[in-house]
Each structure stands twice: as structure tokens, then as C-alpha cells.
Amino acid sequence: MFKLRQLTTITTPKKYLLLFVSFLFSASLFAQDGKALFTANCASCHSVTKKLTGPALAGVESRWPSREKLHDWVHNSSKVIQSGDEYAVNLFNEYNKTQMTAFPQLSAQDIDAILDYIKVEETKAAAATAAPVGETQTAADNGDQTLLYGILTLILAIVAFTLLYINANLKKMADDKEGIPATEPIPFWRNKAYITVFTLVLFLIGGYLITDGAVGLGRQQKYEPHQPIFFSHKVHPGVNQINCQYCHIGVYQGKQATIPTVNICMNCHMAINEYKGEKLFNAEGKEVDGTAEIQKLYKYAGFEPGKPWDPSKAKPIEWVRIHNLPDHVFFSHAQHVNAGRVQCQTCHGEVTSYNEMFQFAPLSMGWCINCHRTTKVQFESNGFYSMYEKYKEDIKNHKMDSVTVKDIGGAECQKCHY
């Protein structure tokens, strides 16, 4: 009896510890799921700590009476506004009566996962703010310490060679004291041990640099070339709220998003021949004359203000392509934007804040596969996925709560490679 009681006393704390660790692990996984959902659905308009198109989401739960009310808002903000909710109406008016996009496809569990992720990020931001300046700087510098590691390696190598030299001299002194005939020291450049070590180090460094260069071959994240005409996305889809599809007409129907023709530009700029907005700056921080850039467009269009325009005189603008994929990679905008309903900002970043367009994402295979593993397919009201009856039945019968792109073949080689 005593042994049994003793065993119970010992194992019970372990059991609770195991449950606690399991809870932390599941919470971590839930937060990661919330991060994927936040990136796919919220990041285009919201940041946790900064005000973007919509308000910062830090402390969002404290501004609403309950999570259920937040669920209603995310599913259909218009309905909540029409109900007369005071906070919802004030928020609607604060953002120039622009309604939040409805997300009926998100389940209550999905929204809770996003809210939990926001809490985690809010805590991290608060900790970073409270940290001393030195600690904050150290954390910021942890991103790339290659130079520091290189200097430390060089110092250690010098110390190692110095110790070897001292050791050789001490051995010579000991031999002299004991009367052992001294041998002529071998010069460094003829010492086989030194030559072998130097060759191995050179081989390892060269191998690392070649491998790193081969892995990044063809990638051009943050590539921001100068264009023939300074075109500000911040002004066009941002300030003037021109829909992306007005210029990129192929994004829903074709493989390419397509670049707008001169005719599309002139639909607006036949009447708009002067820029009167806020100051424009290029990537180097130099101020750009918006009106002069419009005059460049007129030269390509063969247009003179005040005179009838003959479109046949227009010549194409030689835009510099930014986003390039290898020839053996298949990518379709229609597949992602139309069937997959992926937001433009997922791959291109917060385009409405860019004065000059650049490549936001790495567009590597790993980046794409990770997206396919975490992005949930929107089955409801989506005819493209009508063939997947099994998954629909499994979701209906609660055998699974969602389907990712990976589940329908998004990680198979032949889906993306010819």
C-alpha cells in the first residue's frame, strides 16, 4: 500500500508537467497556424503594431466586447455596422467609410487562431520596446553576423599559429638544454602540415561560397530597377484606389498578370497632365517631378495636349521586368488569384505603399512549398474545387477542419515543373 501511494505521489507531478508541456506545444502550433492565416488573409491591410490600410491589431480584443462579436465583424463587417454597433460605426467613419473585406470562409477556430497569434506578436513587441537599448540593438544585429564570425575566425587562426610558433621555440629550448642536436626549422611555406591545413580551409571556404552562390542563383529579392517612367503604386492603387485589375487585366484569366499598354495609361492621362499630389521620391531618396514623368508618357504615346490623339503613333514603353521565374517553372496568376483567391499582397507585399516597385518575396521553391503547406483552400462557393468531393464530405463530417494546397497536390513536383 505504501509503495503504491509513493508511486502515485511521484508520478502525479510528472503527469501534470507532461500535460503542461503538451499544452504549451499545442499552443505554439496553434499560434503558427494563426500566423499562416494572418499572412494569407490579414497582412495585406493590417499590421500588429502599425497602422496601415486598416488599424493596428494590437489590443484588438480589448476594443470589442467579446470574441463572438469579432467573429461577426470578420465574417461580415457590413452587417455589424448596420446593426448600429457604436464602435463598428465609429471605425467605419474613421477609415473614410471603407468597409473591411468579408471573410465568410474563415471558421471561428481560424479567427481565434489569428487572435492568439496577434497576442503573441503583441507580447513580443512590448518586450522589444521594454528592452534596454543595448539589448534591442543586439537583437537587431543578430540577423547577419557573418562579418563578426569572419573576424573571430581570423583572430583564432592567428592565435593558433602563434601558439604553434611558441611551442616550436619551447621545444627547441628544451632540446638545447638536454643537448639534443637541433634540427633546422622548416619554413612555413614548405611545412606540409601548414600547407595541408591551409588547403583544407581554402577548400571549405570556397565550397561554401560556391554552394551559397549556386543556391541563390537567379534569385533577385529586393530587386528594384530604374524604369523608363517613374510609376508610383502608392499614388495609383494607393491614393487613387485604382483596382489592380484595371491595369493588370490578365491576372484573373491568364498565366501572366500583363503590363498595361500605353492606351490604358492614356485613358486617364489624356485628362490628367499635371501631378498635384504629395512629393514623390525614388529609391535613392531624390525628389521626382510627377508632371515631368507624365510628359515622358506623352512622348511614348505620341500625344500633344490640346490636340486629337492618334493611338497608332504610340510605341510600347520598355518597362524593366522585375519578377522572373526559371523557364522550367510553371506559374499561373489565374490559378492563384482566381481559383486560389490569394491576395496580391501575399507575393508582392504592401504594393500600395511603394513609390517604386521591387521584388518583395524571394520566390524560391522553399518559399512556395511552405506557402502550399500552410495555405488553406477556400472550398465554399469555389467551382474550381468541385471535383474534390471526398474532402468536402470529410469537412462536413468533421473528419478534418480544413484542406491545404499540399493536400490537393500542391507539393508534387509535376504540378510546378515541366
UniProtKB/TrEMBL annotation:
Residues 29-122 form the Cytochrome c domain. InterPro entries: Cyt_c-like_dom, Cyt_c-like_dom_sf, Cyt_c_III_dom, Multihaem_cyt_sf. One of its GO terms (molecular function) is heme binding. Keywords: Electron transport, Heme, Iron, Membrane, Metal-binding, Signal, Transmembrane, Transmembrane helix, Transport. Residues 1-31 form the signal peptide. The chain crosses the membrane at residues 147-166, 193-211. This is Quinol:cytochrome c oxidoreductase pentaheme cytochrome subunit.
